[in-house]
Amino acid sequence: MALTCQKPDRIPKALGFFPQDLDMFELSDPEGHFALDVRFAEFKSPAGQSKFLQYLDRLPTDVHIGSTAQLQTYFEWNYHPEADAEGPLGSIRSLAELSEYVLPDLTHPGRYQGLKKQVSQWHAQGLAVAGSPPHLGGVLFEIAVRLRGFERILLDMVLQKELVHFFLDQLTSILLHNALILARSGVDVLILDDDVASPTQLMISPSMWREFFKSRMAKVIRLAREESPELLVFYHCDGNFTELIPDLIEIGVNVINPVQPDCMNAQIIKKEFGDRIAMWGTVGTASLWTDGTPDQIREEVHTRIKTLGPEGLLLAPAYDLDYVPAENIIAFIEAVDKWGGITSPNWK
What is the pLDDT of residue 84? Predict the structure, then answer.
């Protein structure tokens, strides 16, 4: 109900855990421990990467690497963040060259074996389930940047539009394949992820986004909903993507994330679009999470509830929680539980 802009019985909450967060809490089931309202269904990591896993195991314990599943897909696509800015396809200069490049095969059933059973088990516990395609294999603009290089793909969008449309068609077919698997598995929320914004504005113009990405995302949403008519669609983009909100509503997006408070004005968005799109996130800047006090986190949560709730709100950190003190995460949970009960005298 929260994600369809109706009044819920309480404001739901979610967190995402990196491996270092799990180690910090020493909990086998942190989602259950903190009574989070969402579980995340994931594809299995690609097989045949033992050397890569051994490399990760050798990293110093103070090196935080984020999601190993995401990094493994980088390895599979031959993308190395520390390498040259062009990316593995940066040297390609023509559509004919690009058409000869073979993208990774993401269709092996072993990647999603057991996914439907996993979703069913969470549903049996009364939990909502969100599903995200693999990072490379589930985004469009970001993967084009990683494989072609940022400057190159922007030049392509102006000078080689046919090449870009061909490339994005191939990437969209992979995204669609993965989105349909998630829809058929029974997830409640399909996560679509594509960072197209900087902290202050879009990295490409709204017209360029509409030309290259809008219709492709609309197709993915439409076909996924044909498989699962009640499917909710979540769109993630860091930075300020306010200009895209009307387009996202038009193509069927239900909820936007993370609505970073130092980049987007959630109160204005609530006032203008609050009956048509929900917000998932909104809580805290990166510096507040890492350097703030538990009391500051609690006050931030209270402010979001008072100004944005209760309809159309799922509270979560607006930034990845990395190097964040455990007491700040606990303060977040405590604050949502204290003020998020709609019938509670504390909620306002």
Answer: 56
- The pLDDT tens digits for 264-287 are 999 999 999 999 999 999 999 999
* Token couple for 283: 């809580």
In CATH, the architecture of 2-339 is Alpha-Beta Barrel (3.20)
Q: How far apart are CA 40 and CA 234, in angstroms?
A: 13
CA distances from 170 to 86, 148, 290 (A): 19, 14, 39
Residues 6+ positions from 343 with CB-CB distance below 8 Å: 9
- Which two three-digit tokens encode residue 100? 């000869």
Burial status of residue 327 (CB atoms within 10 A of its CB: 0-12, 13-18, 19 or more): exposed
Q: Dihedral (C-alpha) 129, 130, 131, 135: value to the nearest 10 degrees?
A: -150
Query: Rounded to whole angstroms, how far apart are CA atoms 328 and 205?
Result: 37
Residues 18-43 as b/e (b if ≥16 CB within 10 A, e otherwise) read: bebbeebeeeeebbeebebbbbbbbb
pLDDT in tens, 18-39: 666 666 777 778 888 899 999 9
Q: Which of 328, 332, 324 is nearest to 281 (CA)?
A: 332
The CA angle 203-89-112, to the nearest 5 degrees, is 85
Rounded (10°) angle between helices 326-339 and 294-308? 30
**Contact yes or no for 170/177 (Cβ under 8 A):** no
CA distances from 1 to 11, 20, 47, 312, 315 (A): 10, 32, 38, 8, 14
Q: Can you give the pLDDT at residue 48?
A: 67
Mean pLDDT score of the chain: 89
Task: State how beta strands 313-317 and 278-283 pair.
Answer: parallel
Query: For 269, what's the count of Cα atoms within 13 Å in the CB-facing half-sphere?
Result: 30
DSSP string, 92-109: --SHHHHHTPPPP----G
Contact between residue 233 and residue 252 where contact means Cβ atoms under 8 Å apart: yes
Angle formed by the axes of helices 266-273 and 294-308, to 10°?
Answer: 20
Cα 197 from chain centre? 14
